[in-house]
Structures are given as C-alpha cells and as structure tokens.
Please model this.
Amino acid sequence: KCLAEIKSNEYIDNYTKKDKRNVEGAYNKFLEFAKDEKLTITTLKQLTESIVQDFADYLRSKSTGEGANSYFARFKKVLKRAVKEKIILQSPANDITIERESSLTKDILTISEIQKLANTEISYTEIKKAFLFSCFTGLRWVDIKALQWKHLDLEAKLLNKLQSKTDVKVCIT
Model:
C-alpha cells in the first residue's frame, strides 16, 4: 500500500486518539525526510532498518526537546499497526529508539514575582486575571478558557475540571 494511501485513507483519517496531530506530524516529517534524501518510497515494504535509522537521525537533527522522540514514537506506532494488519511482516523500527531528552527545566515564578505581576497595570485585565488564576490553581490556559459554571460547586467552594491535555480530574478548593 502506498504511503499516501495510508495517510489519506487508512490510518490518519480514521485515527481518533488525541495525538492525531502528532501522528500527522510524524507522517509529514517522514515525507520531508524522504524528499531531502531523494527517496522514492511508495510502500511500507520498501522501508528498511537502515532507512528508519536514517529517519531517526534526521529527527534528532531537526528537533529540539522531546520532538524527535515524540515523532518517532508515532512513526513506530504506525509501523506496529501495519504489522498487526499484515501489511508488513515485521517493523523495521523494532530495534531503533530515540532516547528521550531530559525535560527542560522550567522557571517557576516566586510569590513576590507573582505579586509584582498582580500589582502591574495592564490594559487587558481579563488576561491578567486568567494568568493569576492559572498561577494559583495550576490549570492550563486551555482549561481556564473552557471553564463553565457547571465546573463550580459554590456551596462546597469546589472547582471540578477534567484537564484536556491529561484527562486528569482537578479538584480545587
């Protein structure tokens, strides 16, 4: 089966998990790699361990942070599915890994820095309130934006919200 068929018809179009964009991204990265390397791969059966290793190296050279690991994991997921569906006998990526880089150290605001921000006048007060709310609740912007009255229990002084990125329920009192 042609790689374009797998993208457009069989796999990505029917893929319903939350990482669909990442799967599409991995596919697009592979197409970029194939173009850069002047490879004409039309079927999954043409993928060799050598090509997959070169793709892993390509991802490492083009990505920062956890990007290479994330794309390669999705690429391997597609190949694993192809084995399951008997499109290929075995995945040429089985013995190839990309080590996950240690997470970047993120700066954390101190209480005095948050206080300084709270006391700073800005013209977009709603954004400021949302940011401060995020600082004190740990909710991401996407979750704050999606907050509705149904997430609040005013009597119990409780906020119940399922985080969109992790599907973890957050309860804040």
Remarks:
- The first strand starts at residue 152 and ends at 153.
- Strands lie at 152-153, 158-162, 169-172.
- The chain has a mean pLDDT of 84.
- The chain is about 50% helix and 5% strand.
